[in-house]
């Protein structure tokens, strides 16, 4: 009987321990699933290209993370978002914070994930040697530890990318892409499935197996569309249309490129828009439709200018805001010190001794605070000086890249001029003058202290100077008057393109066999109104109703209503209200 009771008690203890273990496992799994659901939803926002929403979401959860591991994943998530926004400074800041937290927790898998993210961070910027250093550190961790399949899939995918973009070793690309794909399918990691398959398809395209490559690309477009992977779909459109061009499927290339262009514009992906617009230009050129090709070439130039100006203006705005914030913080500190001193002075008039002691202590405190404040102010000034130097470097780099882009366009057009007839040669000169108008604007912006405005007189005078040879060759007399007024860079660009197009149209279409050829242009500024008046005495288009397409498009960009009169030649005019503050 005694043995039976002892056995029963022992069984009860075992049952209690078993129940306790089950409850612990359940709580752990529940908290882990909660952690994953928060991170997964943030990744969903990133996949849908809702980057600003993702930043707000991650930062809100960073205020009260459920665990140190979740805190690290949120920091890495923010780094991924800023990397997609091409804000590499913020990306680096959040990766550093994540690394500091990882070192505190000692989590091996998250340390491995950090090195995978650093591989991608440096690969994205073209710093392959730095990327390879982190790849070697990740490989050391992998050899000595068990890593989950999701992180391993990302690691092998990054290795495939390094071999693709740096080494160009096709067999190694396939090896690591297939490893990544196998693991990604196992854990249903949609992004890794997509990019591993994209690497495999790209190798097929490199080996000129275009049929297989195009099949892969079509499946990836369908896959990204079904899973709402916006950035992924935009990326595969680039590979898809490039391969169609290589396979000489020009009509299909045009159809798919225009479809891709509409999708990319709807999702505001500027870099992808530049690449696809370039593909449309190349396709029209190969099809022999030079008019369309030059329209899209002009769009490429405008998009490149927009991209460079956007990055430059964003940097200037960020620098200005940081400086203003530092000034406000310093003023608040000064005001706080003044209020503190006044309160202490009012409260210390009871006993003279206490007043003396209080004033002495306050003096010491003020001295220390001011010393600390001056130290921080000196540090802030050094930081601002550093930012100013960095700004000068970025300006120089942006100027260099814009000059390269414009020079590339000029070389392409010049090469085409050598191979075309006289009639087509004039069309190419037409495009060349428009590119030169944008190049002139860039030179004026680069010289100005205020990069957002240019002097209309100096800029448009330089634009008309580029036509002097054409006017002399065609025996055309000119009379130009342009008021000196500062206008925005965007307005200047469209005015330069409009004046260029009007001059080209006059030279090409306005004059028949007439001895006296005259062209008049005036732009005046009165009471915040800009008056644009252009006319020629050409007889070719008298009493005809005309509406040049590009002129009409430029007027819509300027948001003006133009008046065209062909009673005594050609006359074009509009007025636009501007604030020259």
TrEMBL record:
SMART domains to which the protein is assigned, alphabetical: TPR
Enzyme Commission no: 2.7.13.3
Coiled coil: 370-397
Signal transduction histidine kinase subgroup 2 dimerisation and phosphoacceptor domain: residues covered: 397-469
Enzyme class, broadest EC rank: transferase
One Pfam match: HisKA_2
Kinase is among the record's keywords: yes
PANTHER family: ETHYLENE RESPONSE SENSOR PROTEIN (PTHR41523:SF8), TWO-COMPONENT SYSTEM SENSOR PROTEIN (PTHR41523)
Keywords: ATP-binding, Coiled coil, Kinase, Membrane, Nucleotide-binding, Phosphoprotein, Transferase, Transmembrane, Transmembrane helix
Transmembrane segments: 353-374
GO terms, molecular function: ATP binding; protein histidine kinase activity
SUPFAM superfamilies: ATPase domain of HSP90 chaperone/DNA topoisomerase II/histidine kinase, TPR-like
Protein name stated in the entry: histidine kinase
InterPro entries referenced in this protein's UniProt entry, alphabetically: HATPase_C_sf (IPR036890), Sig_transdc_His_kin_sub2_dim/P (IPR011495), TPR-like_helical_dom_sf (IPR011990), TPR_rpt (IPR019734)
Catalytic reactions on record: ATP + protein L-histidine = ADP + protein N-phospho-L-histidine
């Amino acid at each position: 009987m005694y043995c039976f009771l002892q056995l029963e008690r022992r069984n009860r203890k075992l049952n209690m321990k078993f129940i306790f273990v089950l409850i612990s496992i359940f709580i752990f799994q529940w908290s882990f699933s909660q952690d994953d659901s928060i991170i997964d939803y943030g990744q969903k926002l990133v996949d849908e290209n809702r980057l600003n929403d993702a930043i707000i979401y991650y930062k809100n959860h960073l205020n009260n993370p459920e665990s140190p591991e979740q805190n690290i994943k949120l920091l890495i998530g923010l780094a991924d978002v800023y990397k997609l926004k091409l804000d590499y400074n913020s990306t680096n800041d959040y990766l550093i914070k994540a690394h500091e937290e990882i070192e505190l927790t000692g989590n091996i898998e998250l340390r491995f994930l950090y090195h995978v993210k650093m591989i991608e961070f440096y690969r994205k910027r073209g710093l392959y040697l730095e990327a390879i250093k982190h790849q070697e550190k990740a490989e050391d961790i992998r050899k000595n530890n068990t890593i989950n399949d999701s992180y391993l899939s990302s690691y092998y995918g990054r290795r495939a990318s390094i071999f693709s973009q740096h080494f160009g070793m096709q067999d190694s690309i396939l090896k690591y892409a297939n490893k990544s794909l196998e693991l990604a399918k196992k854990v249903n990691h949609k992004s890794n499935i997509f990019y591993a398959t994209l690497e495999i398809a790209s190798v097929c395209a490199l080996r000129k197996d275009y049929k297989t490559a195009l099949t892969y690309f079509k499946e990836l477009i369908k896959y990204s569309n079904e899973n709402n992977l916006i950035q992924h779909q935009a990326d595969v459109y680039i590979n898809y249309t490039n391969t169609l061009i290589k396979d000489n499927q020009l009509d299909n290339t045009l159809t798919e490129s225009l479809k891709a262009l509409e999708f990319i514009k709807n999702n505001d992906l500027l870099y992808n828009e530049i690449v696809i617009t370039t593909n449309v230009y190349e396709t029209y050129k190969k099809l022999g439709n030079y008019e369309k090709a030059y329209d899209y070439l002009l769009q490429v130039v405008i998009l490149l200018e927009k991209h460079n100006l956007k990055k430059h203006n964003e940097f200037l705005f960020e620098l200005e805001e940081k400086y203003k914030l530092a000034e406000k913080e310093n003023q608040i500190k000064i005001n706080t010190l003044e209020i503190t001193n006044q309160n202490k002075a009012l409260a210390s008039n009871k006993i003279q001794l206490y007043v003396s002691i209080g004033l002495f202590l306050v003096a010491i405190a003020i001295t220390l605070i001011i010393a600390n404040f001056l130290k921080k102010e000196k540090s802030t000034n050094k930081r601002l000086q550093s930012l100013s130097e960095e700004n000068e470097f970025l300006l120089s780099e942006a100027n260099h890249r814009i000059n390269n882009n414009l020079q590339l366009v000029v070389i392409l057009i010049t090469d085409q001029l050598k191979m075309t007839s006289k009639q087509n040669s004039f069309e190419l000169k037409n495009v060349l003058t428009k590119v030169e108008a944008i190049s002139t604007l860039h030179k004026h912006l680069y010289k100005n202290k205020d990069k957002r405005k240019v002097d209309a007189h100096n800029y448009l005078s330089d634009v008309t100077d580029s036509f002097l040879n054409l006017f002399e060759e065609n025996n055309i007399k000119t009379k130009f008057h342009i008021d000196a007024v500062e206008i925005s860079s965007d307005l200047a660009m469209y005015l330069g393109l409009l004046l260029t197009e009007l001059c080209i149209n006059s030279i090409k279409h306005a004059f028949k066999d007439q001895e006296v050829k005259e062209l008049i242009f005036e732009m005046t500024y009165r009471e915040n109104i800009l008056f644009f008046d252009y006319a020629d005495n050409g007889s070719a288009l008298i009493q005809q109703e005309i509406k040049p397409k590009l002129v009409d498009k430029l007027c819509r960009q300027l948001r003006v209503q133009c008046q065209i009169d062909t009673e005594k030649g050609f006359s074009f005019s509009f007025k636009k209200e501007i604030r020259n503050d």
